[in-house]
């Protein structure tokens, strides 16, 4: 058999795909062997070296080497044994192209959209908080977890959805698990989704509140994205390189311009907005981004923000390699076993794996992989690069986050991440508190905290909880050491805050659209007149479902903004558990699909992470529901506050006039913990029953959609091979002659009706 195979579906057209079966060369084998050895050395140093001389560079090396080996071999193994992509088959994007939700999108643009959609607050905030347990446990979970759990889930969900016309996770659960399991999955997914979106939105609102620079710069990404969408759709179809250069230049101009505008009187007046105003603007943006054609705003904006996301993280990695900072955090801290850490309560197992809610494994990603991405996938072969590769990139973001939290002074770290009830919200009391923790290094002073605040242009950095400010301090420390010096710390700090807000915002717009698809699929199951909702591009349904979605998460967001002690803040501790429970639903559906297809011998690939995820989440849920420790148990907190209300006293950190709010919040937390756990257990049990039934009969009927031949071409990898470039030239000539249309280009007067 020839090493290069050309796939044809029409004798009058050039090939629609190129398959390269060339064996790996000895030189490449030597390179991969060298990468493997270097990675093993890095892991050995991290695992065995102790003291204050472990360099952060070894974390970067260990992570990158692991990613390279995993993508080249483990992801390829999954491709060979399970997904088996065929580029001569049309994807849903080609079959159902309508210029709104379905359309073939350039693999590079789609990679940017997918990465921007999945990479939200989790890989930035979770690892920062988890650093209280030391740098080693979190690093191991982030890197090993993504290889065998997170990237596997994202890739296989994308594959399964693509084979089913881009069906949502909820609908796939309904189709594969039956009525009981499907309904439980749909309810769990929708409720969890609203909480996740509201929490992410609140992080953005708090980051942009009273920040004219951030509001202006992030606001400008919207018209820039609209321009890019029109450019690729109508002006210069297929010219991704051109629009990337233009968009990147405009983005940099918007960032620099934001700093200039914020220093003017009119800029400060126009763009200094209250958190309530920002919340309403965010709700409106979520609705508009959900109903507009995907090519016009959502995809180009996410692609644009990816430049900033990957660029900043890449620059941070270079900065670490250049400055070679020493890890101030211990490999494993005393809080890992004691479970009394100030950033969050609970021991290493299970709460480390809950706190790092993204970066290693994230249920939210399964919604994107079965939401917008499969409706835009140009070729089946792109799924590995976008699904598995996109998740590896997010994991690298999480690695950078845990490094930045581990290289700053540990007194500063705990002074920023401990709540005000412990630090006293002043530099003097924060210094006294952190000195009482037994942290290594010289004692902290009030002047130390004041100096850091002055360096980054803030009045105070004490108890700036949530992880984002800590990450910004770490980024400013690294960047200032090799880009501009100490005088630039304030600039880099505020740049990092804006970067984080942009990071999270792109998850909200894509998440709202994904939730719209979920609601549309769910309503379509009722049949009759509701069957029209089965078409996700039906305009009336799109508007109604989008309105329902933004009303749900928007109302929770406004509660949190209006009452920081209650509302969404009461739900924040559930963020990690809910996210990982969602991953259990996704992995259950994938496991059932594999068994039904007769691929039982490879069921361990999603099966192992599923079992681990269920053990972690159910243990965490049990402790949150039944623990007698008021730092952990929701119902214990509830009973204490109820007793305090009867006595007219305060409870925990709540003052007497806040006790009723605390009672309501702990009731919501405890109730939702029970509901989530029960729903996911139902899904898991039903999945096991279906799995056993299919196993006995050697598989069952597939729910995959009928295959159709492809009529378009695209290179399979990020960079086209020589053979692919030759084929691309043939297609370009036909496109230039008007014989065929470029994938994703406008169908002038001939777009399919939706």
UniProtKB/TrEMBL annotation:
InterPro entries in alphabetical order: CstA, CstA_N
Subcellular location, record wording: Cell membrane
A GO-annotated cellular component: plasma membrane
Chain ranges of the CstA N-terminal domain: 55-620
GO biological process, one term: cellular response to starvation
Transmembrane residue ranges: 30-49, 55-74, 110-133, 139-158, 179-204, 210-231, 243-262, 277-298, 310-331, 343-364, 385-408, 491-508, 540-562, 574-595, 667-692
Alphabetized UniProt keyword annotations: Cell membrane, Membrane, Transmembrane, Transmembrane helix, Transport
Bilayer topology term: Multi-pass membrane protein
Family as reported in the entry's similarity comment: Belongs to the peptide transporter carbon starvation (CstA) (TC 2.A.114) family.
PANTHER family in UniProt: INNER MEMBRANE PEPTIDE TRANSPORTER (PTHR30252), PYRUVATE_PROTON SYMPORTER BTST (PTHR30252:SF3)
This protein's name: Carbon starvation protein A
Organism: Nocardia bovistercoris
